[in-house]
Amino acid sequence: MKYLNLLGLMLAVVLTCTAQKEVQVVSLQTKEPVPYANITYLKNGSISGGTYTNSEGWALLDLEEGITDIEVSHLNFKTFQVHVADIEELIHLDDNPQVLQEVTLNFPSEPKVVFAGVERLRKRHTMGAYQGFEWITLIHNDFVEEKRIKSFVFHTKRWSRKRSLAMKVIFYRNHNNTPGEKLPVEVIFELDRKMKKEAIIDLQSENLLLPVEGVFAGVEWIGCPYDKDVDDDDRQSCSHSMVYVPMDEEQIKDHPTFSRYRYRSKEWRSEYPVLGYYPVPAFGLEIYE
Q1: Phi, psi for 175 (deg, rounded to 5)
Q2: DSSP structure string for 92-105
Q3: Which long-range CB contacts under 8 A does 231-240 form with residues at least 24 apart?
Q4: What one-character DSSP code corresponds to residue 84?
Q5: Beta 18-27 vs 90-93: how paired, if at all?
Q6: pLDDT (tens digit, 9 = 90+) per residue, 60-84?
């Protein structure tokens, strides 16, 4: 009897440590779902994990003991924070659209497209990443003027699972070779079994210019979007590997690279050497010359 009582107590403790809640994030104005919004868990103001909504605005919250609030954010909406006791199934975000200045270019003939960034090596080196991980590197502009960006190019291992893996293309201003203000653009794409190892993401509709001082470009891992009709994947099972180029101390000076786990810290961390070399992601931009 004592054993059964102890087992029941242990089970009660486990059940109270983590609570799950399904929510949908929608626009306050249009009532439309907000896809791939960031949901950050907070413990008295400190970051303590997080997740994303799926393409239909749904997310499953894993609220561990001690989490006091959640913060919901998206590029085109005002950030919303709510105490865990007040979380409702529908979370409304107030519209706050971000629009880049329109770019109009007139080419006398078919423009030439050139590559700027880090070319992959014949021998592939890969590094794993997981939900909430951001990886960016500085893309230089070798011209004396701004150039229109055509596409983002990266290299990855082939995705072999049945479910797709969602990612964001992200950009940050170059501030003395460190990431500055985030540019108001996020392009969502999905890896599936049909995607090639070299992925080219079209950015022509985003009206992006490569600044004279260059720009930090990279990706943010969303992971496997929440699907309430299938068993949930854990974070590691939805991890993936990206191709990088190993560089020495001199080479890394020309390719400053930073990473962070957005559901652990807001601070960027410069890359540290792995087996004597710095991993620099094989990211690049196709630009109109």
Answers
A1: -120, 95
A2: EE-B----PPP---
A3: 232/60, 233/163, 235/130, 235/131, 236/130, 238/130, 238/131, 238/163, 238/165, 239/128, 239/129, 239/130, 239/131, 240/128, 240/129, 240/130, 240/156, 240/157, 240/159, 240/165, 240/191
A4: G
A5: parallel
A6: 999 999 999 999 999 999 999 999 9
Which of 39-53, 153-167, 182-196: highest mean pLDDT? 39-53
Among residues 60, 88, 89, the alpha carbon closest in space to that of 226 is found at: 60
Q: Which two tokens stand for residue 36?
A: 């791939």
> What one-character-per-residue DSSP string does 157-211 give?
PPP-SSS-EEEEEEEEEEETTEEEEEPS--EEEEE-TTS-SEEEEE-GGGT-EE-
| Residue 252: φ, ψ to 5° | -65, -25
CA distance 285 to 289: 12
CA gyration radius for the chain? 21
Where do the domains of the chain lie, and which CATH numbers do they carry?
2-93 (2.60.40.10), 113-288 (2.60.120)
Q: How many residues does the chain have?
A: 289
Q: What is the three-class DSSP state of 287?
A: strand
Give the pLDDT confidence of 10-27 residue by residue, as tens digits.
444 444 456 899 999 999
Q: What is the largest CA-CA distance in the chain?
A: 87
Q: Quickly count: other Cβ atoms within 10 Å of residue 275's Cβ.
A: 7
Q: Which two tokens stand for residue 64?
A: 């561990």
Token output for 256: 């400053």
Write down the pLDDT at residue 223: 84
Read off the pTM: 0.85
Residue whose token pair is 């400190």: 46
C-alpha to C-alpha distance for 183 and 201, rounded to whole angstroms: 17
